[in-house]
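Example 9 (inverse folding). The structure is encoded as follows.
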């Protein structure tokens, strides 16, 4: 979350004073409809028919999206080896098995490896737009359609960014956003949104996210029977914050992109430092600049130079599959008989998370330095950053 202020406070205050904090309520009685209005506004922003705000974060949005796609035991879902662990654990949350695929030089899912990994049990793929950098959606969608594989975009780190002129989240069968504190905008520290154009995905996700929906007004329009699943309902305070934050989004993106462009323009012409390829530099959110090196030693020397303040990709903690310890050790749920790795229907599925399963991903991560940007940097701060980066590059 980059920006927040009096506007959020004013809108929260209205909700507090209304004393109607639950997402459903009667507008005639003064209910502010913050969640419902946010959902309409977000669907319009992203360019989808439906949006569902929820309290369980991007993780819940992914879980609900997978449920909406009908994913469950007996299914494999392809996820990139470089992503926050939740992309893979969401698959396990619906009883299916995540299968790892490589990222390519853009640091997003490698379409060629995705296709290579498609087997008879693969029902879905989750391309992840890591660090506001879009995945190669055209190639991924072409392959997915050819093989009858559903696409759930993990746009948790790419909130509002675009690929080829259309916002991410709207390309796949469904898309998930995170509104947690560390993301581009937030709904109050935690939160997530699922978007889709597909009525049946929306309905299943809606019921899944609120097992008590039987008595909500929206339930009247559902064509499926209510089933019991989880409780990820958003509340009106979240809705109010999310509505204000949405109005800040395009301004934040414009500033991030401007700064990124300035930095990248100034970083050309170095023999040993390159800007990492990007599937759509125009649509990229601009939260970081990714630098590519010939080897890890050069990457570390650059990263350690004064004022660079970046990190080498391989050090990105639980974003690197080798660090997904509970998953790699197959410690899922609180009882063995609830652990998808031991489900009868999952016998024989690929569950290989060994250290060397995605070596190209590890190689790219060792040779990439990410430098994070901030939309509120002054010209002076941008200039100082560029000076530090150029000095670091010249010293290699
Ligand atoms: C790529 C990615 N996917 C999923 C998530 C999960 O989002 P949340 O923390 O809001 O549940 C995150 C959050 O960090 C993420 O970065």
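The amino acid assigned to each position is listed next.
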């Amino acid at each position: 979350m980059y920006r927040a202020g009096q506007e959020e406070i004013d809108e929260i205050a209205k909700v507090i004073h209304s004393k109607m904090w639950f997402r459903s309520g009667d507008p005639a009685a003064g209910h502010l409809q913050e969640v419902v209005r946010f959902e309409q506004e977000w669907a319009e922003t992203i360019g989808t028919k439906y949006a569902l705000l929820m309290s369980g974060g991007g993780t819940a949005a992914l879980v609900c999206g997978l449920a909406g796609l009908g994913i469950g035991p007996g299914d494999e879902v392809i996820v990139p080896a470089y992503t926050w662990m939740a992309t893979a654990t969401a698959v396990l949350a619906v009883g299916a098995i995540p299968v790892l695929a490589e990222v390519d030089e853009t640091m997003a899912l490698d379409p060629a490896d995705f296709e290579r990994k498609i087997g008879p049990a693969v029902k879905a793929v989750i391309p992840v737009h890591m660090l506001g950098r879009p995945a190669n959606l055209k190639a991924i969608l072409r392959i997915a359609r050819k093989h009858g594989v559903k696409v759930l975009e993990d746009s948790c780190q790419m909130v509002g960014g675009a690929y080829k002129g259309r916002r991410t989240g709207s390309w796949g069968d469904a898309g998930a956003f995170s509104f947690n504190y560390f993301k581009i905008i937030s709904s109050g520290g935690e939160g997530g949104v699922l978007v889709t154009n597909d009525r049946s995905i929306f309905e299943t996700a809606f019921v899944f996210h609120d097992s008590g929906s039987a008595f909500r007004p929206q339930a009247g329009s559902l064509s499926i029977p209510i089933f019991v699943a989880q409780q990820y309902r958003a509340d009106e305070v979240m809705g109010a914050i999310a509505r204000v934050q949405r109005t800040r989004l395009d301004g934040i993106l414009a500033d991030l992109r401007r700064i990124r462009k300035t930095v990248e323009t100034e970083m050309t012409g170095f023999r040993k430092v390159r800007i990492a390829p990007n599937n759509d530099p125009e649509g990229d959110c601009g939260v970081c600049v990714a630098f590519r090196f010939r080897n890890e030693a050069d990457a570390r020397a650059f990263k350690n130079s004064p004022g660079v303040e970046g990190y080498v990709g391989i050090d990105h903690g639980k974003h690197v599959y080798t660090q997904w310890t509970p998953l790699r050790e197959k410690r899922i749920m609180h009882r063995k008989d609830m652990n998808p790795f031991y489900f009868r229907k999952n016998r024989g599925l690929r569950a290989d998370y060994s250290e060397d399963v995605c070596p190209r991903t590890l190689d790219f991560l060792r040779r990439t330095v990410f430098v994070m940007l901030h939309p509120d940097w002054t010209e002076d701060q941008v200039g100082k950053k560029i000076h530090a980066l150029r000095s670091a590059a010249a010293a290699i």
